[in-house]
Amino acid sequence: MTAALEVRGMTARLGALEILRGVDLTVPFGEIHVLMGPNGSGKSTLCHVLMGKDEYEAGGSARVGGVELMELGVAERARTGLFEAFQYPQEIPGVSLVELIGEMALGSGDPSAFEERAHDAAVQLNMEPFLDRSVNVGLSGGEKKRSEMFQLAARGPQMAILDEIDSGLDIDAVREIAEMVESLRSPEMGVLLITHYSRILRYMSPDRIHVMVEGRIVDSGGPEVAERLEAEGYASL
After folding, report:
1. CATH of 5-236 among 3.40.50.300, 3.40.50.1820, 1.10.3720.10, 3.40.50.10860
2. pLDDT for 152-196, tens place per residue?
3. Which of 172, 118, 123 is nearest to 145 (CA)?
4. Structure-derived torsion over alpha carbons of residues 150, 161, 109, 146, reported in degrees to the nearest 10
5. CA distances, 33 to each of 130, 193, 223, 232 (Å)
6. pTM of this structure
7. Which residue from 1, 40, 2, 50 is spatially nearest to 19, judged by alpha carbons?
8. 8 A C-beta contact, residue 28 and residue 63
9. d(Cα 140, Cα 202) in Å, to the nearest integer?
10. Which distant-in-sequence residues (6+ apart) come within 8 Å of 50 by Cβ?
11. Which DSSP symbol is given to 91?
């Protein structure tokens, strides 16, 4: 069965620095997977390589919905149905959120369906007060992450990569964002949440947790993996 994301033998280096050392990872449609690991383990590099950041010398295979990504540019990867929510969302002065959504709709292939999803998501996530404001300008950390979740819901991708979306948030905002991720769970989308900490997992029900250390996935399992890391730390691996 085709998966939302299938990574096989992923390698990446930056000059002489080897970062990813053969990553294998599968995220089925309808599931939320979590990727944890210490600083410098390669989590963000995996995200960058999947999204097509060209400063890395990368190898291996990565497929979204069965479509190979590695020879595609960033825009083409997005069109296959790959979406990234950023750790630090960018501010775009002079461009309103509704204008951004309109441009996304034009490039979606089905603008009417996109606009319907966007309308429903704006109501569901209480984004209507932000639609006429410049993207992320003057917003709190939690509001910026909520805007990212709104864009995700409107886009309706096959695969969403959420790169440390809990970073810099207070406990109430972490809970809110976790609940939003759960509310967006869909049999037509896979989710990979990248995080350092287990606190966001208290408000979610991930299907599988993977642990990356030194460029390899060294452990995978259920909630017990996060519980063990919480008790023993990464040094236990």
Report:
1. 3.40.50.300
2. 999 999 999 999 988 888 888 899 999 999 999 999 999 999 998
3. 172
4. 10
5. 30, 6, 11, 21
6. 0.92
7. 40
8. no
9. 23
10. 5, 7, 62, 69, 77, 82, 161
11. P
